[in-house]
Amino acid sequence: MSNTEDTIAFIKEREEKLGAPLRFRTYSTWFGRVGGETRQYGVFLYSDGKTMVYEDFERNPSILGFQIPVKRKEKYVKLERSFPVSDIADISRVTMRSAEKSLAQERDLAFPAGKVTAILRRTVTKVRLSDGSVIFLELMDHKAFIRTIQQFQKEDGDGRIQGV
């Protein structure tokens, strides 16, 4: 199977799981959930417009495409979770440092980064859910993510999301 065929098969599997076509998909190069897991190599994030799903994949270190054998201290445990898009209460951009501090102390200590701070420091997207859960994502396009979520919530009759 070619990479393209593998990708198409992978997406079809995800669509079958959701029971609807994927309308949004991206990759977060870094991921963390307050009181939960952190993934240094990121997660795949996708949605049908109603449900947002994130999952990771086991990654073996490599150099120039060649895998490096490593003895793992801990057994890999797959991360796969979902939540309704309607549960997203707000989205903001925060510094990576404040996100890491939040994860270390298992409580949300991150606050929105100003425009100057966002230029000078590494930032991530903070997603706060209606139950108070907080997820941090290092996305390629923070603004596109906000626009997509706003559109999904508008379609669902809920235009309450606030994005910075």
In terms of DSSP E residues, the strand content is 25-35%
How are the strands ordered across the major sheet? 3-2-11-10-9-12
Segments where pLDDT lies below 50 for 5+ residues?
A: none
Work out the number of β strands.
12
Shape: globular
Helix fraction?
Answer: 25-40%
- The helix/strand class is alpha+beta
- Main β-sheet, in a few words? 6 strands, mixed
The DSSP helix count reads 4
Average pLDDT: 88
Query: What's the N-to-C terminus distance?
Result: 42 Å
Please write the string of helix (H) and strand (E) elements. Answer: HEEEEEEEEEHHEEHE
The Rg value, from CA coordinates, equals: 17 Å
List the helices and strands and how they pair.
Layout: H1 3-18, E1 24-28, E2 31-33, E3 38-39, E4 43-47, E5 51-55, E6 62-63, E7 66-67, E8 80-84, E9 88-95, H2 96-105, H3 115-120, E10 123-129, E11 134-137, H4 142-155, E12 162-163
Parallel strand pairs: 9-12
Antiparallel strand pairs: 1-4, 2-3, 2-11, 4-5, 5-8, 6-7, 9-10, 10-11
Overall description:
The chain has helices spanning 3-18, 96-105, 115-120, 142-155, and strands at residues 24-28, 31-33, 38-39, 43-47, 51-55, 62-63, 66-67, 80-84, 88-95, 123-129, 134-137, 162-163. With 164 residues, it is an alpha+beta fold. The chain has a six-stranded mixed sheet with strand order 3-2-11-10-9-12. Strands 1-4-5-8 form a four-stranded antiparallel sheet, with no helix packed on it. Strand 4 and strand 5 form a beta hairpin. The model has no long low-confidence stretch (mean pLDDT 88).
